[in-house]
Amino acid sequence: MGLLTWTTACLLVLLQQQITSILITPQSIAGTAIVLATGLGACLVLLRILNPALLRSNSKILVMLLIFLLSAGITQGALYLEGSGILRFMSAEFLLPLALAPLLATFLLGVAGGLTVGIWSTFSTALMMTTPGQSFRVLITGLVVTVITASLSRHIRTRSSVLRIGLVAGFLQIVCLGGFTLLQPAMLDVNVYAPVTALANGIICSILALALLPVFEMLFDITTDVSLIELSDLGHPLLQRLAIEAPGTYHHSLVVATLSQTAAESIGANGLLARVSSYFHDIGKLTKPEYFTENIQTRQDPHEDLTPTMSALLIVAHVKEGIGMAIRQRLPSLVMDAIERHHGTGLVSYFHHKALQRNEREQQAQDGANRGTSAVSEENFRYPGPLPVSRETSIIALADAVEAASRTLIKPTPGHIEELVHEITHRKWLDHQLDESELTLAELRIVKRSFVFTLMSMLHSRIPYPATSEHKTAKPAKASPSANGGV
To answer: How many domains does the chain have?
Structure first.
């Protein structure tokens, strides 16, 4: 499982030996170390089953270690308060941060990381208790809190949702410990303050998780849904510039975002990440917006005065420019990944074809022979890559091409749209643009169906509005053109 994983295991065992107050003999130290090592091994096996990619990332292992240390430190503090006599009115079991580790780890690493860190933290906390009865109660309560908290934290979009999860965790702690009190009334010191303290403990855990989230995101370059929600605001400076300086690209990005989010959610991928990444995927066009078709409008095409090779260089450069803007604006790496990979190593086919025609004419003008196509290097008209890997970035790459091609449809009937989506996807496949993609063939079929459905809704036709009496007087044979584009 990796040298760092086992090194982490040893550190955790040694740490636990130091922070557990009941270890007073060599036998108890050795026994606790063996039990901890065995429990950690079981947690690592669980993680390998649920999400083995986490074990291959040293930074993710370090995140799990730090979260555990934080939870263990707070637990030891609560036990110290109880042991010193400061907590005279209740047991420290109601102050244990059982929800903190699974909540924070799920935000940062997903459900698999949340369950693993939560179970390990609960297991270690149970061994810190001074009596077997306390250990059993904490173990059962912590497992319940971990599973429910990790499950509820999968798709957190608002801070209020985090606070509600904290309340749920506090309530679960009350229910579990209350049940144990009914079974063994003499084993647990419960009074009127206990339920309030447990609820407050859950809320404090959620607040602490929210406070620590930006720190972990910054230190380990992790992007959570909470950060993506903040970036989804269309008032972002880059998106505002895009709307003003490149309105065609801005509208294109919004449509790609809708296509990508719907398709991603249909296969269980992160729709929020797909939508936010789509907003920013073409920000590089801000450097020279007038050289892109969607922004030319009624102005003269600047490519008429350029060679096809130079035009292709200008088009391809928007990827590099976009990465530069993303770095300056400190956009998350997941969003930058979509900016960099959404074209893969694709061919700028329009200018490549234009170069072939131009070269052919030059050769014919020289010697009348039709042999000019071999002199045009296809590599000069391709994007530098790399290819898309994640499901979200692959979907954005397909949605980008499909949306652009859909604008060429003269009659967007369902049959034509379906044929177009199939053709674009098949062309990407034949051009090896999906060779490194995590999309399966079954998921690709679902994505194509989602594209067709969404485009049919967007490109639907309208019934012409009936002409009013004024229009009939002025133009009796024709309805108002503005009415055809009305709401």
So the answer is: 2
CA-based nearest residue to 209, from 159, 167, 170: 159
8 band by pLDDT with thresholds 50, 70 and 90: low
* Shared domain check, 260 and 216: no
Give the structural domain span for 14.
3-222
Query: Is the pTM of the predicted complex or chain greater than 0.85?
Result: no
DSSP per-residue codes, 241-290:
HHHHH-HHHHHHHHHHHHHHHHHHHHTTS-HHHHHHHHHHTTGGGGSSGG
Cβ neighbours around 461 below 10 Å, total: 8
Neighbours of 159 (CB within 10 A): 14
276: CATH: 1.10.3210
Tokens 């303050």 identify what position? Answer: 193
How far apart CA 112 and CA 40 sit, in angstroms, is 15
Helices (H) and strands (E) counted in the chain, each on its own, are 21, 0
pLDDT of residue 484: 36
Domain endpoint, select from 222, 244, 279: 222
**Does residue 213 sit in the same domain as residue 259?**
no
Distance of alpha carbon 342 from the chain centroid: 16
- What distance in Å separates the CA atoms of residue 173 and residue 170, rounded to the nearest whole number? 5
220, with CB counted inside 10 A (0-12, 13-18, 19+), is middle
pLDDT (mean) for 326-355: 92
For residue 480, pLDDT over 60 is answered with no
List C-alpha distances in Å: 50 to 40, 45, 53, 109, 113: 15, 9, 9, 12, 9
